[in-house]
Amino acid sequence: MTTIAVLGNGRVGGNLAAALTRAGHKVAVADRAPGAAADAAQSARIVINATPGAGSLDRLTALREELRDKILVDVSNATTDGPDGLPTDLIYPGSSLAEQLQQALPETSVVKTLNTMLFPVMTSPATLTQTPTVFLSGEDPQAKQTVRELLTDLGWQKEWITDLGGIRTARATEAAILFVPHVIRSSGFTPFAVSIAR
Ligand SMILES: NC(=O)c1ccc[n+]([C@@H]2O[C@H](COP(=O)([O-])OP(=O)(O)OC[C@H]3O[C@@H](n4cnc5c(N)ncnc54)[C@H](OP(=O)(O)O)[C@@H]3O)[C@@H](O)[C@H]2O)c1
């Protein structure tokens, strides 16, 4: 049982919090109420960022003390969105939100994962008809091992998890968001994950 704070109580945050609670973890969810994120992060071992990527760097940098020596699992995508609410462009081209977070929070182990799929897949990967991939990016091998265990709790089989390497590799998975609006426009909101087929 791990104490986990989920920042953001929307589609992603609510879904992850429910699944992690079902898996036996102690989960606190923070909405945007003043102080909620700090309170939740303070008492957690792992903090999951499920808030909009555009403001994440400012929001999480403000929690530097609460995040010290913790694992920050970043599942967000930092994009500008079009009038239909779908992503159009990256906010950190040539870099990534995860790299910016790791640089701003040197005492925190940032692990990027789960950002390359629609939210229902995060907690029900086995429901897809083809084998999905989930990626890991981060500098701290131990933190990535802990996140692997969380992914297993969410239903991810070991061979579906691909560790891409250091936090710089997150720029590849964050760029995969550029597929999303086009896939949704062509096939609707049917759940999918950007995956490696061999
Ligand atoms: N949806 C997906 O399938 C999917 C897949 C992969 C990654 N992601 C990423 O996951 C993140 C969350 O996506 P989502 O679909 O769950 O979005 P969402 O349903 O809009 O939920 C966002 C959550 O963040 C909260 N929030 C918004 N602004 C905030 C602020 N300034 N301070 C604190 N909390 C704030 C919202 O609170 P309010 O309800 O009060 O606005 C809400 O609880 C995004 O970065 C997104 O790119 C989404």
Automatic annotation (TrEMBL):
Residues 3-53 form the 6-phosphogluconate dehydrogenase NADP-binding domain. Pfam families: NAD_binding_2. GO terms for molecular function: NADP binding. It comes from the Bacteria. This is NADP oxidoreductase. It comes from Streptomyces pseudovenezuelae.
